Amino acid sequence: MKNMKPFLRAQGSLLAIFIILILLFSGCQAEQPSPPAISMQDLSPVKQGYLQQGLIELVPDDLPAPILPDQPGQLERGQLKYYQVCLACHGNWGQGLTDEWRATGFGDDMNCWQSKCHAPNHPPHGFEIPKEMPPLLGITALSTLANAEQLYQIIYQSMPWWDPGALTSQEAVDLTAYLMNARGELPDGIELTKDNLAAFPLHGQPVELVNANLGGIILISGLSIAMASYIWTKKSSKKFEQ
Ligand code: HEC
């Protein structure tokens, strides 16, 4: 039986090294964030500038009119509402009413404040708008809001700006989910409801980091299993010795 000892020990170490290598590999894999669907070259120069300053994330340049399936999910419903109601003031990629958005989206009507249209002397059925329309997407946006509940409340109670209270509660929840998902702060497949809103923080960890953490967890638990299997083979080889 003594002859078995080196054999078992070698086998145990090999097994441990093999498991460690596999886990190191899978850990590294999980840490890689998935590549964005669009690249820097796809963006307009203005938007490239915003991105370089870290003001926005890499999101498509134009928000096309969404085409909804027969049974739209929450994100799709939110996207459609955003497109129909919020886009004019908050921009086609959530940038706010920037000069660039007025120039690309409004054509001849780009001077919203001069054309009487939305100035203090607006027509009887019109309304005045402030000069600043805050961005909703991007790292610096929504800085005073802490979670989905607060985002929902502001949308439900005070938006759209010219007709607060016009949205149903469900529409405001859908919009909250759509914006949080577009910000990378709500993974696909999670349905927001009025009851779970407070559980979803804004400005938290980006989704990629959560994946990286998962890689770390797999790595650590794998290392423990490898250690345990090494100790176990050592022990059993000792048994053979006796
Ligand atoms: C007519 C222009 C207009 C429209 C349309 C509009 N908003 Fe706003 N929105 C504003 C303005 C102006 C503010 C800033 C209000 C303030 O500071 O008091 C604002 C603020 C916000 C904020 C708070 C931002 C922050 O940083 O605190 C959110 C969220 C928001 N809007 C979401 C929406 C959503 C969602 C819609 C579509 C349902 C919408 N808005 C439609 C003009 C608009």
Structure description:
This protein folds into 2 domains: 62 residues; 137 residues, Cytochrome Bc1 Complex, Chain D, domain 2 (Orthogonal Bundle). It is 50% helix and 0% strand. The protein is built from 7 helices and no strands. α5 packs across α6. The protein is elongated, with a radius of gyration of 27 Å. About 7% of the residues have low confidence. It binds heme C. The site of heme C has 22 residues, from α3 and α5.
Bound molecule kinds, no repeats = heme C
Question: What is the count of distinct domains?
Answer: 2
CATH topology of the largest domain: Cytochrome Bc1 Complex, Chain D, domain 2
What value does the Rg take, in angstroms?
27 Å
Which key features would you list for this structure?
single chain; 242 residues; mainly alpha; Cytochrome Bc1 Complex, Chain D, domain 2; 2 domains; 7 helices; 50% helix; 0% strand; elongated; binds heme C
Describe the secondary structure blueprint for this structure:
Layout lengths: L3 H28 L13 H8 L21 H17 L8 H7 L42 H11 L10 H14 L24 H35 L1
Helix pairs in contact: 1-7, 3-6, 5-6
Bound molecules: heme C.
In short:
With 242 residues, this protein is an all-alpha fold. It has two domains: 4-32 and 209-241; 68-204, Cytochrome Bc1 Complex, Chain D, domain 2 (Orthogonal Bundle). Helix content is 50%, strand content 0%.
